[in-house]
Amino acid sequence: MECEFFVPPAESARWYEYWCQARFQWYVDLGIPADMLRLRAHDADELSHYSAGTSDVEFMYPWGWGELEGIAQRTDYDLKQHAQHAGQKLDFFDQAANERYVPYVIEPAAGVNRAMAAFLLAAYDEDEVEGEKRTILRLHPRLAPYKVAVLPLSKKDTLSPLARQIFTRLGDRYMVDYDDT
Prior knowledge:
two-stranded antiparallel ribbon, alpha+beta, BirA Bifunctional Protein, domain 2
């Protein structure tokens, strides 16, 4: 998935930095520890000829660092190329500044598969209870498929209907799971 964010040329460096930090923080806010992430700026020899900067948000996979998403400061190259081939102007007139320009483009590009893999790997945990190892998925609450689980501790005739009633009421507001096994 890509986002094309158009900015005045004079503000492109500031917006590029903003998007780099915002995209990094998005992963942290959804539960990936900051020490499992890094923001890596591409070296000059890695950049496209039109790029004023590219950075990757990288994740520490079990096999090493890998890209989660890229953020590119693409200048006005794409819009100028498109305008040239389409035979149409793609400039913008800023009335407040009384200035006409072709916007620069900041492009965050992320893949859902990579993000989900990182969220699952970061959430995976194991612990030991009474000598028995168990696997736990500690997803951030905003990513967890269920917000509430109703787990009655017995199948008594008096408890099950009450548990079902609680499940039904909560189901109007939340993603709820019910398990009476």
